[in-house]
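Changelog note: in this version the structure field was regenerated for every chain. One regenerated record is shown below for reference.
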Amino acid sequence: MIDPVKKQRLLEQVKALAEDDTVLAFSGGADSALMLALLSQATRCSGKRLLAVYIRTALMPSRDEALAQTLAKKLGVTYEVISINEWEDEAIVQNGPDRCYFCKRKLFMALQEKAAQLGISQIVDGTNHDDLQSYRPGLKAIRELGILSPLAQCEMSKQDVRAYLVDLDLEVAKRPSSPCLATRIPYGTVLEVETLRRIEIAEQFLTSMGCYNVRVRLHGDVARIEVDSAEMALIVHHRKAVLERFKALGFLYVSLDLEGFRSGSLDVKIVS
């Protein structure tokens, strides 16, 4: 259940935002989906423009784009896609601990350019309050560029967001988080297109088996599987199929992490 005070604060802030034209950074995930739903309602009342923009990048799972387009169409919101080439930026490719800062800055500067072409100055994203509690250097770029994050400002957690989406009867409430594929690679390991695609295919395979939260982290020749504790038995039961698929993808060794799924597990050395 959502804290009614938080909910009211968010609704008031969305109403205020809807008094101006808005570009929403829309990934199709739960957080930006909630902002899309609320802003679409508010801008219909105010008569202001709302544009949902999906940023196509090599670092995001490819399935996200179709999901984003479907939801925008369902809500009747104008939707556009802009493409970014991260491989042009060595600070991103080299994958240092501050990679996310450079990546977010590149993405949102492109979004600002799109908004400027339309004469829109207000850009909103779906950063939530939980994001502020973890290692996210990209948040610095968002603040520097003046991007508005109503969910974070109203202290809406991921749990609050999902509960609100359930109230709105939007299926995206059940969708697991789908972060940048670079989060599967240890800092200092150079990013490669082919490696990220192999990881994405491996994760899709585990998802097709019935796993909910899935991460395949790559440590040299070792693919380390993270799934929820309750689903570890599923991986073990289908051990031969998992090994066969992962080996076919070029992973030399395959391991199951006994700690289970946890967000940002490669940040341990940085935040500890």
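Spot check on this record: Residues 192-271 form a domain with the Alpha-Beta Plaits fold (CATH 3.30.70). DSSP finds twelve helices and seven strands in the chain.
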